[in-house]
Design goal:
By secondary structure, this protein is an alpha+beta fold. Helix content is 37%, strand content 23%. It has 10 helices and 17 strands.
Length: 348
């Protein structure tokens, strides 16, 4: 899920000034329809895409698992997308606003799910963990980050409340991978893998009219969250993210980008350059914070000086760790553990 951090203004072109309203859709390219669903977070919406095929609708991402989203899909299929049935769901990645309602859609409309192997694995890693295992893992994450006990308790209680809900999980999937070609409506969408924000995000590019369904990999005005995950504290997701941006820059500069949040836009190369510059600035901030030995929690106040909600804090800490780990892997900072098992970072 992206961190709703506003970026510097860059010269992007927005063909649509407003998103489709509830229960409506906008055709943004031949056979490509844009719908929007609500989210119960600070970033309060997700863009979803409905592709027209000869014998049904192909959905790209599911929306968040809630009765509101279920009712919205039912309304759309009863009004806007009548005449054909949904036939397939493609999930760009495993985050709950993208794959959360996949099981319900599959069961309700008898459709198949397509996603990458690592996104399927990540979904089930989170969804099948028992509450005690989540508590232990998150406690270790917060201890390594130097987070106070009060903050830990707030987050753990929030996760217990979320995990208590009954959900329908997907019971199978069709495997897709980088460079696969997916035929929809007599045209071809190529799978382009993005990393860093998610393990193996599947963006879709239609070359004949240069349309990219980017998921969260490239967003206008806000930066997708790039975080160290609690189960992989030594990884370097920021390096993965920056390298995958270089691969997306090989797509045409005049590509129409259909992002999961905010508005569709032109200006792919400019936006990629802006995202990379943003993270270079954040790396400078992180290095400055490490002039003395600091915990990730202390560095978070430097990278995210504004007030954060409890929901946002988890992502801010994970992203701070991603920048610190980038510097650690590059040998710009050292990382030691104190007697309590907390990571301490210091410039070398």
């Amino acid at each position: 899920m992206p961190t709703p951090t506003e970026q510097k203004e860059i010269p992007l072109e927005f063909p649509w000034s407003e998103a489709p309203g509830p229960g409506t859709g906008i055709e943004v390219a031949p056979g490509v329809n844009w719908v929007r669903m609500p989210l119960p977070f600070a970033l309060d919406h997700i863009n979803l895409w409905v592709l027209e095929d000869s014998d049904g609708w192909v959905l790209v991402d599911s929306g968040f698992d809630s009765s509101v989203t279920q009712e919205a899909w039912a309304q759309l299929f009863d009004s806007v997308f009548v005449g054909k049935n949904p036939k397939r769901l493609i999930c760009t990645h495993h985050h709950p606003d993208h794959m959360g309602l996949a099981g319900w859609l599959m069961k309700t409309y008898d459709i198949t799910l397509s996603t990458t192997q690592r996104e399927w694995d990540a979904y089930h890693l989170w969804s099948r963990l028992k509450p005690d295992a989540v508590t232990e893992m998150m406690g270790r994450f917060y201890k390594r980050g130097g987070v106070s006990g009060d903050r830990q308790e707030i987050d753990l209680q929030r996760r217990k409340d979320m995990s208590s809900r009954e959900r329908i999980s997907p019971d199978g999937f069709d495997y897709i991978q980088d460079a696969d070609e997916i035929g929809v409506g007599g045209q071809t969408w190529a799978v382009n893998i993005g990393t860093g924000h998610a393990p193996e995000l599947a963006a879709l590019f239609r070359a004949n009219d240069k349309v990219l369904i980017s998921g969260d990999q490239v967003l206008p005005k806000i930066s997708p969250n790039v975080s160290v995950m609690p189960f992989a504290l030594d990884e370097n997701p920021l390096k993965d993210f920056l390298e995958s941006l270089d691969r997306f820059r090989q797509l045409p500069s005049d590509t129409l980008v259909l992002p999961s949040h905010k508005l569709p836009f032109y200006g792919l190369h400019d936006r990629i350059d802006s995202l990379k510059a943003h993270h270079m600035d954040r790396l400078d901030d992180a290095l400055t914070a490490c002039r003395e030995s600091v915990t990730a929690a202390q560095a978070t106040t430097v990278l995210f000086p504004r007030a954060l909600t409890d929901h946002q804090y988890f992502f801010a800490l994970g992203e701070t760790l991603a920048h610190l780990n980038y510097l650690w892997h590059a040998k710009n900072v050292s990382r030691e553990e104190d007697a309590d098992g907390t990571f301490l970072f210091e410039r070398v």
